[in-house]
Design a protein that fits this description.
Layout lengths: L16 E8 L6 H9 L17 E7 L2 E7 L9 H15 L3 E7 L4 H11 L5 E6 L6 H12 L4 E6 L8 H11 L17 H16 L8 E10 L3 E10 L2 H8 L4 H18 L2 E10 L7 H6 L3
Parallel strand pairs: 1-3, 1-4, 4-5, 5-6, 8-9
Antiparallel strand pairs: 2-3, 7-8
Length: 303
């Protein structure tokens, strides 16, 4: 394990470099946490539940010398309905449009199980193996695991990190720049994502639904911002929360509306932090029967 943090100012770049760096891994290994930590911005929502990320989320690291376009992808899974098929397709698309792959695993994960997933993806670009949550294992175990992955064909670098505690992120960034190809910027250097504000507002609500509901409800819920009015001192946002069946609606609202109020209040706090101004949030819960397995509904929700 490296003892010295790499100073990115020392990285020699004579021509402009740019590329797509996509983050792959099983559900709940910390892909979204890593993306947020690398950018020092909350681009992707994070919850303890699997399958929180459904769509490809781009976060952009800009510098006069380079532009790194990170993609947070859904966790690798075996699809059982059309929503999950859409999530699996996102992973396949990300495999085609990538210059550097970050394959993220938990440091305490079984090596052979992780390698089976790695082999299945069949990467054709430089791969950086990122061992996350290194604070959960001892130094000798970490050295052993790094030695194992260093011997796997196709892996260019092995970097141990703690995304949550932001350990060794400069080392990871330096490794990314090492393999970043020459090229012009893909996006305006002022942008940190390709997603619009409505997307982030809806995801803040969806994050709270994942945090405070259980069983199938978070996985069968979609959020759409249907109206957004910007005013000088406050933004007025109307969001519709779609559930898969009638029974889910009453459970999401909660007794006396307590649960939906908690979800809305905490989502609004995140919105205000993100926007830097006050927000009035109106949330409405609606039923769209079996939307998770309906192609027309999925398309209308942007899948």
């Amino acid at each position: 394990m490296a003892k010295k943090q790499t100073d990115l100012k020392e990285v020699k770049v004579t021509k402009h470099h740019s590329g797509f760096v996509n983050i792959f891994g099983l559900p709940n290994v910390g892909k979204s946490t890593l993306l947020n930590a690398l950018l020092n911005e909350k681009i992707s929502i994070v919850t303890p539940k699997a399958q929180t990320t459904r769509k490809r989320i781009i976060g952009i690291w800009n510098d006069p010398r380079f532009q790194v376009v990170f993609n947070d992808t859904p966790g690798i899974l075996e699809p059982h309905y059309k929503l999950q098929e859409s999530m699996a397709n996102v992973i396949q698309e990300a495999m085609q449009d990538v210059d550097i792959a970050l394959f993220l695993i938990e440091a305490n994960m079984n090596e052979m199980a992780a390698k089976a997933q790695f082999d299945q993806l069949k990467f054709k670009v430089p791969v950086i193996l990122v061992l996350n949550k290194i604070d959960q294992i001892t130094e000798p175990v970490l050295r052993m695991k790094m030695g194992f992955w260093a011997g796997v064909e196709g892996i260019k670098e092995v970097v141990p990190v703690s995304a949550l505690k932001k350990r060794n992120l400069d080392i990871l960034k330096a490794m990314i720049l090492k393999y970043l190809p020459e090229g012009p910027a893909f996006y305006d250097k002022e942008h940190i994502s390709d997603r619009n504000v409505r997307f982030f507002m809806s995801d803040f609500i969806r994050e709270k639904i994942f945090l405070y509901t259980h069983d199938e409800i978070p996985y069968h819920t979609e959020v759409v911002v249907v109206d957004y009015k910007e005013k000088e001192d406050i933004d007025v946002i109307t969001a519709e929360i779609y559930v898969n069946r009638d029974s889910h609606k009453s459970m999401l609202i909660g007794k006396g509306g307590a649960l939906i109020k908690r979800i809305s209040t905490e989502a609004r706090a995140d919105m205000e932090k993100f926007l830097g101004k006050k927000v009035f949030l109106d949330t409405r819960v609606k039923v769209r029967e079996n939307w998770i397995d309906n192609e027309r509904s999925l398309k209308s929700f942007g899948y």
